[in-house]
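Lab notes, practical 5.
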Amino acid sequence: MKIYFSGSIYGGRQKLETYKKLINELKKYGEVLNEEVADDNVLIDEEKQSDYDIFENLEQEINKADLIFAEFTIPSLGVGYEIGYADKSNKKIIGIYDETITPKISTMLRGNKRLKIIPYTYINEIISNLGRIIKEEN
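Output from the prediction step:
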């Protein structure tokens, strides 16, 4: 299975350690296509590429993905765009968010019945149930 991971980069990096844990766990279930989201140097690395090249690469990776796994806690225009694009491409999408930081996420996400959205208090709640969560979506 190919898994596209989506998380905030320019919107804020407060959940970077969570992204690292999630990607490490997601690798047990397939190939993670967008690991750079959890790279400490992603902002520096992106300065070496054109916006167009980054966009084209991410779009191609979403197209290859069997599953989109997104962390919604930190509001991000890029994550929102990726989810909208993936949804219109009929991708399976799982979104999680830390309800201790963001008690309620956007209505555009909550109201979309095609998305599986899971709030959590501790990331280990998600990690310990990740196999079941992914299996339910496939």
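Observations recorded by the TA: The helical segments are 16-26, 42-46, 51-64, 77-88, 107-110, 123-128, 130-137. DSSP finds seven helices and five strands in the chain.
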